[in-house]
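Dear colleagues,

As part of the handover before I leave the project, I'm documenting each prediction I ran so the next person doesn't have to rerun anything. This entry is a single chain, and its sequence is reproduced below.
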Amino acid sequence: MRKSLLSLSVAVLFTVLFGAAQAAQPKEYKDITIGFAGMTLNNEFHITLANGAREQAKALGCTIDVQAGDQHASAATQLTIIENMLSNNVDGLIIVPSASEGLETALRKSREQGVPVVNADTLINKEVAKLAGLEIPFYGTDNFQGAKLAGEFVKGKFSKGTKTAILTGIEGHQNTSDRRNGFIKGAGDAIVVVAEQTANWEVDQGYTAAQNIISAHPDLQLFFCSNDNMGIGALRAIEEAGLKDQIAVIGYDAVSEALNLVEAGDFLCTVAQYPAKMGELSVINLCKMIRGEPYEMYIDTGCRVIAKDNVQEHMDYLSKYVD
């Protein structure tokens, strides 16, 4: 009798454990194909975002097709990519928009085909989405808050009236205005903005813009660069002008090269986003949309200032997603 009870107990325990293990397994979506239309794959931030999406798609068993243009501003190329994906009958789309304005036709087509869309990192203009007849979930950083944190960092480090230049991203991007405005709000009277110029998120344009600004304002003390690429370009211009001891640089994105520059003391700080998380959440929620399951309309993926005291921690985190 005791042996029978023991056998029954083991069987029950096995059933409970097996059932728990089964419940813990992620849902599989093997018959789903996702199209991922990125802004570019020539920037580590966007590569990390795409890698996060790839890893999550692998975990869920679905197929993902990742494509992007060569430049951040490759709006026409991105539109072609999206239209081709729709022609190839993808089940859902993840879009990191190069520009919102040209997307209305493609978004309308996705609605007509019953192809759900999610938006990562850079917000699709709400009016464009409305004209296309779509409500589009968004997963990304509160960029105003991230830049505000950078501004507050400056306020704690610099005296009132620090002569500051701002390099901004692509005009019309929500990220562009949010990062500019958030930084100014956070820094308050610690800065006086003497120059602003767009550099379209690119290293070479950041270099040229910084050269022009330094030439016009040789007494400049600080660059706030709305992404690390532009900061890397600005640093090169500062070094060539022999002003590294005078002009500090702040970036945004916390890509590997920027983290190395923070560690070396060449960047004062950068703002970390979590692009891999954006990619992961986009895949998870898009699969739920395709299946008709409940999903999240908005998720703030977080941000923080990275300076010398915490740079190694973020390097360790990022290494999981960067080759």
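The two ends are 60 Å apart (CA to CA). Residues 49 and 275 are 4 Å apart (CA to CA).

All the best with the project,
I.
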